[in-house]
Amino acid sequence: MTTQTIALPADWRDFLALTKPRVMTLVVFTGLCGMLAAPVTVHPVIGFTAILCIALGAGAAGALNQWYEADIDAKMRRTAARPLPAGRMDRQAALHFGVGLGAFSVLMMGLAVNVLAAAILAASILFYVLVYTVWLKPRTPQNIVIGGAAGAFPPLIGWAAATSGLAPLPVLLFALVFLWTPPHFWALALFVKTDYANAGIPMLPVVAGERTTRTQIGLYTIPMAVAAVAPWPLGLTGAIYGAVAIVATAWFGLLATRVATRTTRDGDAMRPEKQLFAFSIVYLFVLFGAVVVDRWVA
Amino acid sequence: MTPDEEERRLVAQRRNARALAILLGAFVILMFAVSIAKIGMQHR
Fold first, then answer.
1. Is B34 in contact with A9 (Cβ distance < 8 A)?
2. What is the spatial distance between Cα A105 and Cα A113, in angstroms, rounded to a whole number?
3. pTM of the prediction?
4. Any A CB within 8 A of B5 CB
């Protein structure tokens, strides 16, 4: 005789957690700023729909990432409580949810907004899931360098949703997020190195060591700073953005230099790395906010 | 399945059905609003 166990249906809060709402916040914000920085006025309903589609697309990518990495997440303290490794959700439900949400977001963007925005949204979801999660992340320490492109798409989508085209400013915003990703993630990887090592993910500090990671953080900060300040001298934004970009980037540079030049000691609390990680998030919010303020004030 | 487990399953199912109903309702309202906005944009 066998005992049949019927699991409880997953709670809606678990489906929400599957979409990585905290990551979604930054994605939605950069997408919204890309849209508001465009030199046209978008109908509020269409604008809202575009942002909703960006959020749903990011949620779909997050859900598919968690579906694929459920076994890795179970090995890391930071991610072990997620719905799949914690056993609160069936893997197939996560897959269906991710695919359904992704298809819905792209179709909705295509029908309600425009085809270009839908195409970039589709490309960003596929890039995050197939190129970053499936291909690069388990294979190379350069995973987040190339994979960073996935998170850089939202300002392009926002701009495309508003104008049905692209321009140098959103491309520079794309470059900014793309070049910001390595110092941001490697700062995190330095203080959760053990977690990544236990899960067998070849993050740079695990594979190449801390010294190389610290040097790379310093090196990537240089082109990131150029991409951050460039819109002003190129005449794509005004002085408000220029001033904010210079001050915020100088601060980022200082924190990154501190991380790049120090060495971990025994019982190190990794404060500079945590500060760089925390500031890098604020930095992106501030810069994108400044693009919009600059456009609306000027 | 014990009556207690069955009850918990039904509660969870009802909660999810309510969340889905709210989402579907929101989707209908959004599609309506998008249609009105698109019609308005064509007549501008």
1. no
2. 11
3. 0.90
4. yes
